[in-house]
Design brief:
The chain contains 12 helices and no strands. The chain is mainly α. Helix 3 (82-91) packs antiparallel against helix 9. Bound molecules: iron/sulfur cluster.
């Protein structure tokens, strides 16, 4: 409804421009503010790892040297069957192999078959594996994995990557461990924390995603070396190329390593 106190409406041509329009015009007339000089973009912090000015280590040479140093490099988890290795590998997440090797004899003495573990009570398994850390999730994974092996694979651990990665608690890394060590199948390269760190320090990759690191390593080394390659790098990472304090002074790769600190 029209306001009766207002006078007669002005014709459109005489109406005052709206305040917003006036302000916009004022802003347009105003001198542009002097922009502060832009700082040049800061250089990204150098990544830890290989010094890019130095060439990466020669893959064949470093494999041969590590093999000469660790001719018996092997999986350091104790196992008698593919199923035991699968359980041990799941338990080894965020835990030392030594600790897992203390726990698995007790676990397998209590649950000696896949079927027995599949029927186990979660609380009982948790109690046995407690010292490996993340024990609730791990107990759930190994019981779930055992059930899947019983139901989908007649109690036999499958020997393909595609089937293994569908089991609870099993990713590509664990599947590669099982295939390489329980079935002698070189399907990929196990990329754990040691392999990832050494691959970077040796200049073999600039990737940080384990799957991409694995792809690059598979391109650098012949297929029949993939399983042993991971053992060699893990052995060297545990014994010499420590994450915090690498012992470059006693390293067999020091003369070819772009990250050497000697
Ligand atoms: S210990 Fe040093 S020299 Fe040896 S691989 Fe590690 S970073 Fe390179």
């Amino acid at each position: 409804m029209a306001n009766k106190k207002q006078g007669p409406r002005q014709p459109l041509s005489q109406r005052r421009p709206k305040v917003v329009a006036v302000k916009k015009a004022a802003v347009a007339r105003a001198k542009p503010l002097k922009q502060p000089a832009r700082k040049p973009a800061a250089k990204p912090a150098p990544k830890l790892g290989a010094k890019r000015s130095l060439p990466p280590a020669n893959p064949t040479l470093l494999y041969d040297r590590l093999l000469a140093l660790y001719p018996d490099a092997h999986c350091e988890l104790d196992f008698r069957t593919p199923f035991e290795l699968l359980v041990a590998t799941i338990l080894s997440a965020q835990c030392t192999d030594k600790r897992v090797n203390m726990v698995t004899p007790v676990l397998f003495a209590r649950y000696s078959t896949v079927e027995a573990l599949a029927a186990a009570r979660q609380e009982d398994v948790e109690e046995i594996i407690k010292s490996t850390g993340f024990f609730r999730n791990k107990a759930k994974s190994i019981i779930g994995m055992a059930n899947a092996v019983v139901e989908r694979h007649a109690g036999e651990v499958p020997s393909t990557l595609a089937e293994l990665v569908t089991l609870p608690g099993v990713g590509r890394k664990t599947a590669n461990v099982i295939l390489g060590n329980a079935f002698n199948i070189n399907e990929g390269v196990v990329v754990d924390t040691h392999v990832g760190r050494l691959a970077t320090r040796l200049g073999l990759t600039r990737q940080t995603d384990p799957v991409k690191v694995e792809q690059e390593m598979m391109g650098l080394f012949p297929r029949d070396r993939w399983t042993m390659l991971a053992h060699l790098l893990i052995f060297h990472g545990r014994r010499v190329c420590d994450a915090k304090v690498p012992r470059c002074g006693e390293c067999t790769l020091a003369d070819v390593c772009p990250s050497r600190r000697v």
